[in-house]
Each structure stands twice: as C-alpha cells, then as structure tokens.
C-alpha cells in the first residue's frame, strides 16, 4: 500500500499471496476495511488493511485435478450486503466462481 500523496512511500506490504507472472485481482471492501486478493497459488486472500498478514485464506481446487498447481485466482470483487455484511466473489483461471459471505465483527470494550 502506498501513500497517495507520495507514491514513493510504502505504507504497508501484504504477505502470502503470489503474483509474479499472471494477473490476479484485487478488491477493497471500504466499509469493512478489508482487501481481497487473488493469487497464483490458486488461493484467495483477505487482509485487514491495518495488518500485513492475511486474516483469511481459501484455496481453490486445482484446474487439472487435485495433484496440479497450475490454476490461479484471477478476479475478486466485494459486494456490500446491508450495513455490516459483504460478499466476496472470487474467480479462478478455470472459470469457476466462488461466493463467500462475511460479516463485520463489532467489538465492545
């Protein structure tokens, strides 16, 4: 993540996902403060924008069967559902679309 006023200043680096040769998607759930990201290791990652480590990871079945690792998650998109709920859609390079439902946790101190 970069500072919009100074694009040379890195604010945070997010770890875990792989992106070296294929386009992998990125999407922001602004109300929840979450980033959804595809990966070349055929997984979808969710990050809280405040931390560099993923808070949730889900693997897709490999494109060529269970023993292959050739697929990648190429597209992700958040959808707002009500005030504190969301849907994360993730599409694999094999054309399979998966839908995940989430809810923002409210903390009381």
UniProtKB/TrEMBL annotation:
<dbReference type="InterPro" id="IPR015943">
    <property type="entry name" value="WD40/YVTN_repeat-like_dom_sf"/>
</dbReference>
<dbReference type="GO" id="GO:0010224">
    <property type="term" value="P:response to UV-B"/>
</dbReference>
<dbReference type="InterPro" id="IPR044616">
    <property type="entry name" value="RUP1/2"/>
</dbReference>
<protein>
    <submittedName>
        <fullName>Uncharacterized protein</fullName>
    </submittedName>
</protein>
<dbReference type="InterPro" id="IPR036322">
    <property type="entry name" value="WD40_repeat_dom_sf"/>
</dbReference>
């Amino acid at each position: 993540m970069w500072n919009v006023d100074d694009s040379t200043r890195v604010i945070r680096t997010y770890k875990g996902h792989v992106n070296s040769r294929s386009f992998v998607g990125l999407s922001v759930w602004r109300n929840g403060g979450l980033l959804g990201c595809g990966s070349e290791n055929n997984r979808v990652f969710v990050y809280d924008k405040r931390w560099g480590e993923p808070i949730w990871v889900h693997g897709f079945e490999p494109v060529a069967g269970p023993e292959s690792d050739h697929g990648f998650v190429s597209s992700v998109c958040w959808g707002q559902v009500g005030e504190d709920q969301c849907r994360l859609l993730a599409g694999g390079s094999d054309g399979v679309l998966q839908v995940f439902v989430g809810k923002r946790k409210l903390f009381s101190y």
